[in-house]
Amino acid sequence: MFNHILRFQDVEQNLVVSQNDLIAFEESIADEFNKGLIPFPIHLESGNEGSLIDVFKIIKSDDYVFGSWRLHLKALLKGVPPDELRRAIHRGESMALLFPEYRVYGSAIVGGTIPIALGVALSIKRRNGNEYVHCFLGDMSAHTGIFKECLSYAENFSLPIRFIIENNGVSVCSDTEEVCGGELPTSHLIKSYKYKSKFPHAGSGKRIQF
Ligand SMILES: Cc1ncc(C[n+]2csc(CCOP(=O)(O)OP(=O)(O)O)c2C)c(N)n1
């Protein structure tokens, strides 16, 4: 389990982004959104900065990061320059960020990137590559069939991928446990952490009329 990852723990990344940097970035985006400077949907992250920094300690620059509509902080931690990320958000891309040159891929579709991440992991294995795939998903997404199928395939074929379930307890406005029931899947390929965000599912919490 995680052998592929553990090999790299001794070359732990020197993260140039601190917890305060992450908080300040999202607050500045919230502020710009509240001022009407970003007339597009945004999905902010908060309360998970420390957990993310921990998760990124073993993510190398040539690794792949896949995720969802909630990707600002992962992009920063993967090395996307803050100005480049800000420009993308201002172009309306917060919901589906793509930075192929930094190997960061998001999608607004629930479960959208999971099979793609799996395919990348399969290709790494087939060519004996050293890269690893890190696929982030929310707690509701972790209850989907597509995730469970991909997890099972990754386990069965020992693919170089791990899934990071970011459990904020909600699916948009619904209580995930109440709606989806049951426990979240567990596996040696899954790392989960809980967090509580000060931001709502989308936007910044203030009603904006464009
Ligand atoms: C295929 C599909 N169905 C429905 C939606 C609407 N939708 C957007 S986010 C979301 C809930 C996701 O919750 P979770 O996976 O816990 O992620 P979080 O937003 O809490 O990070 C839903 C149902 C969607 N984007 N794509």
Could you write a compact summary of the structure shown?
This protein has eight helices and eight strands, in the order αααβααββαβαβββαβ. It has 210 residues and is an alpha/beta fold. The strands form two sheets. It has a six-stranded mixed β-sheet, covered by helices on one side. A two-stranded antiparallel ribbon has the order 6-7.
Polypeptide structure, described:
With 210 residues, this protein is of the alpha/beta class. It has one domain: 3-Layer(aba) Sandwich (Rossmann fold), CATH 3.40.50. Helix content is 35%, strand content 14%. It is built from eight helices and eight strands, in the order H-H-H-E-H-H-E-E-H-E-H-E-E-E-H-E. It has helices at residues 3-6, 19-34, 49-56, 72-77, 82-90, 114-126, 145-156, 176-180, and strands at 64-66, 98-99, 104-105, 133-138, 161-167, 170-171, 174-175, 190-194. The strands form two sheets. Strands 2-3-1-4-5-8 form a six-stranded mixed sheet, covered by helices on one side. A two-stranded antiparallel ribbon has the order 6-7. The longest helix is centred in the N-terminal third of the chain and has 16 residues, at 19-34. The N and C termini lie far apart (49 Å).
